[in-house]
Each structure stands twice: as C-alpha cells, then as structure tokens.
Amino acid sequence: MDTRLAVRARAGLATMTAVTALLYAIQCVNMATLGLLTRWFGIRPRDVSSLPDIVTSPLVHDSAGWGHLAANTLPLFVFGFLAFLAGARQFFTAIGLSWLASGTGVWVFGGSLFGSPSITVGASGVIFGLFGFLLVRGFFNRSWWQILLALVLFTAYGSVLLGILPTVRSGISWQAHLFGLAGGVAAAVVLRPRGRVAF
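Given the sequence above, the corresponding structure tokens read:
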C-alpha cells in the first residue's frame, strides 16, 4: 500500500471511530434526559430560532431507542472512511457541504406546512451526502478506480436512494436525504481537478 494512502487509512479509521464514539455518547445523554437533546438541538422547520440547529441536528438521534443511530452507524463509518482515503480536505468538504445542504433543506422544506411542528435529527443527510460524493467524484476526476468503487457502492447500497422520494415511509426525512445527496454532489463538483472537462 502507498505510504500516503496508509497514513490516510489510519487517519480515516481514527476519525470515524472518534465520530462514532461521539455519536453514541451523545445518544446516551439524550436517552438519559428523555430526549432533551432532540428537543433542544433538532431542526424545527421555518423556525428562525432553530437555524443554529442546522449545525447540531446530525449529532443527535431519536431518543426512543438505539435503532436510529444503529442504522446510521455502518454506512456513516464506511462512507466517511472511504471519503477520507482521498485526503482530509476532500473528507471535510464533502461532510461540510452535505451537512449544510441537508440541514438547510430540512429547515426550509421539512415537515408539514399546515400540520403540527416536527423536529428532525440524525446523520442520515450527511450519509446521503457522502454517498453522493463517492458515487460521482470518479467521473469528475476521471479516475477509473473511483468509478469502480462507485459501482460497487451502488450495487451494495443503491436501494437507499429511494429515501430521497417524498413517498418514503412516514417518520423519515426525505428532505434531509435529498438535500444531503445534493450537497455531496456539489462537493464533488467543487473538488474536481481544475482545467479538465468534467465528462
């Protein structure tokens, strides 16, 4: 293995292990406080006072149990690690744009315009962003190994893309998924090599 790639792999494992540990620690506090963190730090669509929650909501998960966080753990770890293999700049750009796009999309378009207020939490928007980034970056980079990886990931996880549809089951924020995915694609565009035609 290339020395730089080995260094990135170790850094990626350490980073995603730390992220996972942080999410589980936050979930322990949230459950111990009966969902206080969800109520304080989840996004309430179109509520101006909830704008800062765009930053905090992916760190918090449903306080009803471990299922929400458990479902997010493996894809977040895998996609985050694979993004980190390209370097810290690629990783943090993909995370940052996915995080911001997902949260902003939920704040503007989330919930029901006429129904009772809803609160959105969870890292799934960031996961969709990382997935989108990994799926398209190879085409912008003209990298055959990245395109091959994208095909493998699509074969393994492609069905999750149904989560961007408004028809997804209730209790799931398709807005977080859709806008997170868009943020990941935007990251691939921003990070594409300069001076090349994209396709």
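The chain is about 65% helix and 0% strand. Try to locate this feature in the token string yourself.
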